[in-house]
Amino acid sequence: METESSRIFVRGLPPTMSEADFKKHFGKYEVTDARLFPQRRIGYVGYKSPEDAKKAVKYFNRTFIRMSKIGVELARPIGEAPTRKQGQSSQHPLAMAKLPAHNANAEPVVANLKRKRATPEPEAKEKDPKLSEFLNAMQAPSKLRGTRGEEVDIAAQELDTKVVVPEADSDSEYENVPKKQKKEEGTTTTRPSHTVAASPTPEPVPQPEPAAANDEEFEGFEDEPAPPTDEVEEKVRSSQRLYLRNLSYATQEDDLRSAFAEFGNLEEVHVPIDPKTGTPKGFAYLHFTNADSALKALRDMDGKVFQGRLLHILPAAAKREDKLDDFALSKLPLKKQQAIKRKREAASATFNWNSLYMNADAVMSSVADRLGVSKAELLDPTSSDAAVKQAHAETHVIQETKSYFKQNGVDMDAFKRRERGDTAILVKNFPYETKASELKELFEQHGKVKRFLMPPSGTIAIVEFHHAPEARAAFASLAYRKIHTSVLFLEKAPKDLFQATAPLTDSTDRETTQAGLDAKASASELLQETGTEVAAGTTSTLFVRNLNFSTTTDRLTDVFRPLSGFLTARVKTKTDPKKPGQVLSMGFGFLEFASKQQAAAAITAMDGYSLDGHKLQLRASHKATDAAEERRKEDKAKKLAARGTKIIIKNLPFEATKKDVRALFAAYGQLRSVRVPKKFDKGARGFAFADFTTPKEAENAMDALRDTHLLGRRLVLDFAAEDAEDAEAEIEAMAKKAGSQLNKVALQKLTSGGRKKFRVGDDQDGLDEA
């Protein structure tokens, strides 16, 4: 909920201003709503954020539109009482209505004074009846209705007597009556012919406050939102869903999640998209996991300002997952029930064992197709290392898939994050013979596909939609659908899966993709060789200052990348104290070049260059800075060396032997030793150790086999603790381990005792076994 208003109130507008001109004039910032009342020369403008509203007030207040000077201020929410301005008279009708109880006796006096000022003396009326008639006609309608009912009645009676035409009059005289009546009706059309009861005392009429949101401003919701009734509460508790309308057409699902997250966990946020324009339709559905959270959100947010518009929240009907109810579902076979439940829960499931899971049959088919052999020849049934061969084939395909995804803008580190996105889907477990065009057509039936990536191996694919509702519809419809001889496994891709500079790639031809992959791989090898040569030489660092605070590292890198010998660029930042988690630029940075000559050429070429409105100042960096950089590199090298050469392999199948582990890891370096711990019955304990000769080989093995399966189990790899070389350190470690075991035994004795009862008057312990 917005603590500050994102709407502004404008007064003093030109009377001939149109709504289009009004919206265009205040369009300096993103406008979400514009309401103009030309008769009153006021208007309301809604912005997407309170910050934009504040900027608009500061920019437009006390400015001119044509010949009219306008006043701009933040609009107050519905129901908020207007603040009394300095210098406002205490005789204001609003002030009179708020007088304390002990001043009630003074009200008739003030009212009588007003009546005396507004009405002439009775003697003057009797002397000049035309003056009395003129004053009656010029009074406000409100006074004619309530405070002067008796005089209105008298005037109406006089009017009736004047309009009556005698029967003896001629036709010409009778025809003149309508003209006279029309003239008098101009001032007496609203006067009733019957007697109007007069109020004993005049009630103060409240004056409209311009900055307060009135009934006209909140169209469709005439009054301040009333608290939900029992019927509304019952609907919300039963469905746990809310229907939001009058939303901005730029509202996204993340905006609603952040606004309503304080009320409780949200199971689903659905913003319908117009398929023709690709923009939101202006309403949304929220599904809470708790009914109390939904009810609290309804009470607190209904009628509040959100992104410059006034929210209207209603209870939504319960969502129908399928056409079968629980009773009809129970009549189906058990296998069919499980399939329906699994598909129903697929859209909300966030847990997956392995994001890069690949069908083992598809992996072997892909490798056999490339080698030009059959799967039977690739996997010899008489061989004892068939599982290791399959693991090697899967590792090769996974490495190729990772390389392909990286080249197409996929952030591989995103797979380590738990947060899932709503627009990208991982498609897995389809057969190798499935064509990319066939798979893409399945997803295009549910919306416009933004990206479609399928590696040359043909074992996994990534589909990204333009809008989240389309991706959810495709996920719910295609999850666990049978395709050829297999079943589709779908998984929500991690959030921010693609980098900002990722191209919009559409891969539908495996041969073209493979050729491009080979070409790019060759280029990457050349870059690696160049990088090795540069690292071997001495680099030079430049200090750049007078940077614009809005200049980022990416922006600085793009400017200096064309220069010869450029390696890296970095803008120095610090933590923002007002916004935790964000950083602020410090106005300077560092540039690294391959040699001192290239750095000197960069100073000559770029010193004084204008970047984002600031002229850059370049000079050679101090030796202290270079020394600090060297220390950081040394520390990083020490950390890599401290990792050691021993790897612990967890989740190892119990059927795996020492020979299988050695055959699997020997392909990535020279092994010093392999150990598979056994139990007393000679069975494997489910983990093993592999010790390489160098840390680099151990790291390469971990990177390659991180997502590999052996006999159906995904291997979990980590660096193992090194054995202590000092005897005293070894003894200390053993003593610590023994102490922890003794503590566990003592804790078990305290917690595993039988039930006990206390006996009053027992001379011994007072505690016996139950």
UniProtKB/TrEMBL annotation:
Its main location: nucleus. Residues 105-133, 158-237 are annotated as: Disordered. Belongs to the RRM MRD1 family. Keywords: Coiled coil, Nucleus, Repeat, Ribonucleoprotein, RNA-binding, rRNA processing. Gene3D superfamilies: 3.30.70.330. It comes from Aureobasidium melanogenum (strain CBS 110374). One of its GO terms (biological process) is small-subunit processome assembly. This is Multiple RNA-binding domain-containing protein 1.
